Amino acid sequence: MKPLNYVLLRQEIRVGPDLGAWLAQGGGEGLEQALADPAALIPLIEAADLRGLGGSGFPAHRKWRFMAESGPAAAKYLIVNGNEDEPGTFKDRLLLDETPHQVIEGALIAAAAVGATQVLFYINPAITQGLRHIRKAVKQWQESGLLERYGRPIELKVHPSSGHYIGGEETAAISSVEGGFPFPKVKPPYPAEKGVHGHPTLINNVETLSNVSHIVRRGAPWFRDLGLGAASGAKLYCLSGDVLRPGVYELPMGTPLAELVYQHGNGLLLDKKLKAVFTGGPSNTILTAKDLDVALDFESVLQRRARLGTGAMIVVSHGTGIVKRVTEYLNFFAASSCGQCPSCKTGTYYAALLLRKIDTGQGSRADLESLQNLCRILPGSGRCHLPDGAIAVLRSSLDQFMPEYEQAIGGRRP
Ligand SMILES: Cc1cc2nc3c(=O)[nH]c(=O)nc-3n(C[C@H](O)[C@H](O)[C@H](O)COP(=O)(O)O)c2cc1C
Q1: pLDDT band at residue 3 under the 50/70/90 scheme
Q2: CATH number, domain with residue 270
Q3: 54, 197: one domain
Q4: For the chain, first and last CA: distance in Å?
Q5: What is the predicted pLDDT for the residue at 404?
Q6: How far is CA 198 from the centre of its chain?
Q7: Of 282, 317, 352, which residue sits at a domain end?
Q8: What range does the domain containing 372 cover?
Q9: Atom in ligand 1 nearest the alpha carbon of residue 57
C-alpha cells in the first residue's frame, strides 16, 4: 500500500471560493509558469500522461493538440464539464465546492495551451453549493486583474446545465451552451473541429483539469510517480453501496479494488461477502469477487473487459438481487435517453420493460431471449454512447448472473 499523497484534496487547499487563501497556498504559480511558455504545455501534459477523468480515459494531450492545431479561429471554446449525473459518481461536486480555484486555474492553463478565448464552466445545478462557489470564484478572478496577464481577452462564464444525465455527453453539452436542449450531435465533426456555434471546442472534465496546475508546478515525473505500476497520477474513486465507509478517496491511480473496499471503505456492512461491483458508474461490465485484485487504472480494468469510467465503485453484497439492481439502472438509462435515435429510445425502454417484467416474476424465456437480442443490436446504434453503456451492464449481468434471471422467470416458457 503506497502512502496517501493527496493532491486535489489536500486539506490546506480546500479553501472554497477564497482567492486570497488559494494564492497564499501557492495557487496562481502554475498559471504564471504556463503563461511564460504556453508552447511547453502540451508536451508536458503528454509526458505526465494525464488522462480524461470524466469517463473515457482519453489522453488529455491528444485532445489539446487537436484544438491547438485547429488553426486560427475568431473564437475557441473550453467547456469545463461539471454535469456529473451518473449514479454513484460524486467527485466533481467536491472539487467545485471545496477547491473552485483549483478547477479554474487548471482551466485557464488549458485555455493558454490551446488558445481558447472563452472558458465555460458547465455545472449541474443540482450541485448547488459547487455552482455558487464557482460563480463567486470566477468573479474573483475577473476582478483580480490576474486575467490581464494573458495579454489577450479571455472570457469566463458559468453556464448551469439542464441537469439531465445526457447533458454531460460532450456534444450534448455543446447543444446546451448554444441555448438548446442537450441533444447529442453526430460525430464527426468532432468538437475540436466544429463545436460551440461552429467554433473549435475543447471539453474536459472537472477532475481532469484540477490536476493541471499541479503538473505545471511540480513536473511530469512527479505526476507519473504518484501512480502505481505503469499508471500515472492519482484518482478520486467514489466508493458507495454496501460498504462501512463510503466516500471519495484520492488514491494512487492503479490502487487495487480490494484495498479500496476493505482498507479505505472498511469492508462490507455486517461483514457480508462481496458479490459485485458496478464499476465506473453503472454503465459498464460488472466486476465480481474474482476481480478484487484488479488495479483500478484504465488499462488494467480494461483487461478484465470492464472500464474504469468515472472511478465510481458501487459495491453490492451477497443477498442483494442483481436483476432488481440492473432493472433500476435500465430504468434510469431509459428515462435518460434524449429520444433522438429510435434505437436508443425504444431499445432502452424495451429493455427496461422486459427487466421489470422479469423482476416482478412475470417474465418468460422469450423475454430473456429478447434481452439477449437487444444486447446484440443496440451497441453502436446511437449517436452517443448512452445505449452502449446501458447494454454493457445488462449484457454483463446476463453473462455473469444468469442463474438469478433463470430463477426470476421460474422456468416459464412463452
Ligand atoms: C451519456 C453520457 C454522459 C456523460 N456525462 C459526463 C459528465 O457528466 N461529466 C463528464 O466530464 N463527462 C461526461 N461524459 C463524457 C463526455 O462525453 C466527455 O468524454 C468528457 O467530458 C471529456 O472530458 P475528459 O476527457 O476530461 O474526461 C458523458 C458521456 C456520456 C456518453
Answers
A1: low
A2: 3.10.20.600
A3: yes
A4: 53
A5: 97
A6: 25
A7: 317
A8: 322-409
A9: 27
Domain match, 208 and 259 both: no
Give the residue ranges of DSSP H helices in 39-114: 41-48, 60-68, 92-98, 100-114
Three-state DSSP at 408 gives helix
Any domain includes 39? yes
pLDDT band at 144 (very low <50, low <70, confident <90, very high): very high
- Chain centroid offset of residue 1 CA: 25
| Beta carbon of 336 within 6 Å of any ligand 1 atom | no
Alpha-carbon gap, residue 269 to 225, rounded angstroms = 34
Total count of domains within the chain: 3
Shared domain for 146 and 82, answered yes or no, is: yes
The CATH number of whichever domain residue 202 belongs to comes to 3.40.50.11540
> Which of 50, 56, 63, 91 has most ligand 1 atoms within 8 Å of CB, for mutation?
56
208 lines ligand 1 (CB under 6 A): yes
- Residue 343 predicted with pLDDT over 90: yes
Picking from 223, 253, 284, the residue at the C-terminal end of a domain is 223
Determine the pLDDT at residue 73: 79
Q: Are residues 303 and 213 in the same domain?
A: no
Return d(Cα 52, Cα 303) in angstroms, integer. 19
Measured in Å, residue 121 CA sits from the centre of ligand 1 at 14
* Residues 164-177, mean pLDDT to the nearest whole number: 98
pTM: 0.97
Q: Whose CA is nearest to atom 22 of ligand 1?
A: 204
Provide the β-strand partners of residue 205. Answer: 81
Q: Which protein residue's CA is at the shortest distance from atom 28 of ligand 1?
A: 169
120 lies in the same domain as 240: no
Determine the pLDDT at residue 2: 55
* Placement of cell 446546451 in the chain: 176
Residue 332 CA to residue 355 CA, distance in Å, equals: 12
Same-domain pairing of 309 and 350: no
Residue among 8, 159, 169 whose CB has most ligand 1 atoms within 8 A, to mutate: 169
CA 65 – ligand 1 centroid, Å: 19
pLDDT tens for 157-170 read 999 999 999 999 99
